[in-house]
Design brief:
alpha/beta
């Protein structure tokens, strides 16, 4: 379907105005072409010709496109990474939150199109892989980014310590059976990478076996992409200082005790080993078909915006349209009208 403009004014300018206004008012930005806007003249337009939603692309507060700003490049060293930075973003926190709201509206509509495609037999899906140490904000990404879309179009799976059944199978068995079906956004809170991170740091498998897993994971992800599952991999990096503050808060507040585990302290004590393990992951599994994006996570607002940008871009790349009806619309409408008489 060709993209059309619902209004004569430049939609990018409209998106900018909405984001800026929302930043000042504290209200959620309303995107041009949203359901609320279209309801005004719904009777005057043919629903079958509804325009593809205008995007929030190219708002000026991204000096560098998110993929470019956050992608892993040759020579990247996680030990030198500034977890408090906001690479590519030049706007304020308020402007970031306004943009996140605008992205949420776009993401919601694009996800509905993907879901409709899946209900019509399409097999395309998007898989968001979220990796990060404790307190990096993985749960916050799920709540504040994925939470902006219809949950019926989301397939969420968290991977912890393998169960006895999972241990009896190949390590990718539990991953494979958790993949999103066509039409859904899949979210992995931790993933297959635990088997080259935790397993490596804690020495839970022979080193030669772990070494072989990097290429095995690469080929597994290549097969996913070949099956039309779009893979977005993000590594959330929190600084040791910020991690300390977040763990301390969990201990100080009774309402956060449930989020704390004594195991968190053991993992934190192994931070240098985890940094080395993550460095190997980024070097060996950053592929053209499933690249890594490293997200500074000390500022939660930036991490959420960054992941939302990457996910929305993945959905845009699918060039989603509404599936055509597989029945005679005119005949169905005539039958409905006859029933009303």
């Amino acid at each position: 379907m060709a993209k059309t403009k619902a209004k004569s004014e430049d939609p990018k300018k409209l998106s900018k105005k909405a984001a800026k206004a929302a930043a000042k008012s504290g209200k959620k930005a309303k995107k041009p072409g949203s359901a609320e806007d279209r309801s005004v003249d719904a009777d005057a337009a043919d629903p079958a010709l509804a325009p593809v939603p205008e995007t929030t692309a190219e708002i000026e507060d991204w000096a560098t496109p998110p993929r470019e700003a956050l992608g892993v490049v040759d020579g990247f060293q996680i030990r030198d990474f500034d977890a408090a930075a906001t690479p590519g973003w030049t706007g304020s926190r308020a402007e970031a939150e306004a943009r996140l709201a605008a992205l949420g509206e776009e993401m919601s509509e694009l996800q509905e199109r993907l879901f409709a495609e899946g209900r019509s037999g399409g097999r395309r899906a998007v898989l968001l892989v979220i990796q990060g140490l404790d307190t990096a904000g993985k749960g916050g990404i799920v709540r504040h980014v994925i939470g902006m879309v219809d949950p019926q179009g989301v397939s969420l799976r968290s991977f912890g310590v393998p169960t006895q059944e999972e241990r009896s199978h190949h390590y990718l068995w539990r991953i494979d059976r958790s993949l999103p079906p066509g039409g859904k956004i899949g979210v992995f809170d931790r993933s297959q990478y635990e088997d080259v991170l935790v397993v490596r740091v804690d020495g839970l498998a022979p080193l030669e076996e772990i070494e072989a897993r990097y290429e095995e994971i690469n080929q597994f992800e290549k097969a996913l992409v070949d099956r039309e599952t779009y893979v977005v991999k993000v590594a959330l990096v929190v600084s040791p200082q910020e991690q300390y503050q977040r763990l301390r808060e969990r201990l100080e507040r009774p309402d956060k005790h449930w989020k704390f585990s004594l195991g968190d302290l053991k993992v934190r004590a192994k931070r240098p080993a985890y940094d080395e393990a993550y460095q190997l992951v980024l070097e060996r599994t950053n592929t053209s078909w499933a690249p890594w994006y490293v997200i500074p996570a000390d500022n939660k607002w930036f991490a959420r915006l960054a992941v939302a940008e990457l996910l929305v871009q993945a959905l845009r790349d699918l060039d989603l349209t509404w599936p055509a009806a597989d029945f005679d619309v005119t005949a169905a409408m005539a039958e409905l009208d006859a029933q009303q008489q």
